[in-house]
Design a protein that fits this description.
Strand content: 5-15%
Structural class: alpha+beta
Largest sheet: 3 strands, antiparallel
Number of strands: 5
Order of helices and strands: HHEEHEEEH
Low-confidence stretches: none
Mean pLDDT: 71
Number of domains: 1
Number of helices: 4
Radius of gyration: 16 Å
Shape: globular
Bound molecules: zinc ion
Helix content: 40-55%
Length: 120
C-alpha cells in the first residue's frame, strides 16, 4: 500500500466519524473520492467540481443568460449551479487528485470566506 492510499483511508475514517446530520454531505464527498480513485487507477488526473454547500459532485455550469456576458468574453469565470440544493456561484470548489497548486488553495480559501460572510 502506498503512502497516499494510507492517507486516503485515514481521511475516510474521519469522514464517517462525524455527526449523523452530515451523512448526506459525507456520502457526496465519498462519491467524489471514489470517482477520483477510479480515475487515478486509470492514470487520469482531473478536477471534479463540487458544491461548497452540500458537496454534491453534480455541479454544472449554469445556463448562460444575458447577464453572463462578461463570462462569455472571459472577464469573469462562468457561473456554476448545483441541482441538489440550488446553490449558484462563480467560484466553485474543486476536488482533485492532483497536488494542489498555491493558486487553487487560495481559491478554495476565498470560497470559504465568502461562505462565512453570507452566514452572518
Ligand atoms: Zn449543492
Amino acid at each position: 500500500m502506498t503512502e497516499q492510499e494510507t492517507k486516503q483511508k485515514k481521511r475516510k475514517k474521519q469522514q464517517f466519524a462525524v455527526a449523523e446530520e452530515l451523512q448526506e454531505e459525507i456520502q457526496n464527498a465519498v462519491e467524489v473520492a471514489q470517482a477520483l480513485e477510479e480515475l487515478e487507477k486509470e492514470g487520469k488526473q482531473l478536477d471534479i467540481q463540487v458544491c461548497p454547500k452540500c458537496k454534491s459532485p453534480k455541479v454544472r455550469r449554469a445556463k448562460s443568460t444575458g447577464g453572463d456576458m462578461w463570462a462569455h468574453i472571459g472577464l469573469l469565470p462562468p457561473s456554476y449551479e448545483c441541482p441538489d440544493c440550488g446553490w449558484q456561484e462563480r467560484i466553485v470548489l474543486k476536488a482533485t487528485n492532483k497536488p494542489l497548486s498555491v493558486k487553487e488553495v487560495e481559491l478554495i480559501a476565498e470560497a470559504q470566506d465568502i461562505e462565512d460572510e453570507s452566514a452572518k
